[in-house]
Amino acid sequence: MLKIILSIAAATSLFLVLNGCESATGDESQNAKKERSMTTNDKTEAHGTASRDHHVRLTEAEWRKRLTPEQFRVCREKGTERAFTGKFNDHKADGTYVCVACGNPLFESNHKFNSGTGWPSFWKPLSDDSVETVTDTSHGMRRTEVTCNSCDSHLGHVFNDGPKPTGLRYCINSVALDIVEGNE
């Protein structure tokens, strides 16, 4: 019986890796930690609105002070939150999704779709200047990492199995996002 359970767990992990995002092996208590109680307006004031001409550069200590431990693990250490645990996976409100680290506008809610992978998925970014893509060869795979164009925070990965018109699926960690509701 134990072998069957372990086989199912291994198959589930492989499925998650092959279908969008690596499975997180971080401490589950990280997900339970309370996020800072900054409002989106507070974050916009603290971070400003990022643009191509504005690149946020902070020391590791400054990032640790600004972000929760889970946000730091995902955004700065290229981690992944556990599937189906993120606050934006089933989020339906209209608005603009922004980088949790710097406030850079990234995605519009009308570009979000349910991919069934357990992470928020978008078929295109807000603009070509919102995100950067970088080849990622970690974990023995070749994938395309998505980072914030303003602060280089890790957001997730992009895959070629999304809906029309782009055929792309931006698989993004909820913990790397915040939302400004109603700004579409």
Report on the structure:
This protein has 184 residues and is of the alpha+beta class. It has one domain (2-181): Peptide methionine sulfoxide reductase (Metal Binding Protein, Guanine Nucleotide Exchange Factor, Chain A, Beta Complex). It is built from five helices and nine strands, in the order αααααβββββββββ. The strands form two sheets. It has a six-stranded antiparallel beta sheet, with no helix packed on it. It has a three-stranded antiparallel beta sheet with strand order 2-1-9, with no helix packed on it. A hairpin with a 6-residue loop joins strand 5 and strand 6. The radius of gyration is 16 Å and the shape is globular.
Strand line-up of the largest beta sheet: 3-4-8-7-6-5
Largest sheet composition: 6 strands, antiparallel
| CATH fold topology | Metal Binding Protein, Guanine Nucleotide Exchange Factor, Chain A
Shape: globular
Helical fraction equals 10-25%
Q: How many strands appear in the DSSP assignment? A: 9
Class per helix and strand makeup:
alpha+beta
The N- to C-terminal Cα distance equals: 51 Å
The CATH homologous superfamily is called Peptide methionine sulfoxide reductase
What features would you highlight for this structure?
184 residues; Metal Binding Protein, Guanine Nucleotide Exchange Factor, Chain A; 3-stranded antiparallel β-sheet; alpha+beta
Could you outline the blueprint of secondary structure elements for this entry?
Elements (H helix, E strand, L loop, with lengths): L1 H17 L9 H5 L7 H8 L12 H7 L2 H7 L19 E5 L5 E4 L3 E2 L7 E2 L8 E6 L6 E6 L5 E6 L9 E4 L4 E5 L3
Antiparallel strand pairs: 1-2, 1-9, 3-4, 4-8, 5-6, 6-7, 7-8
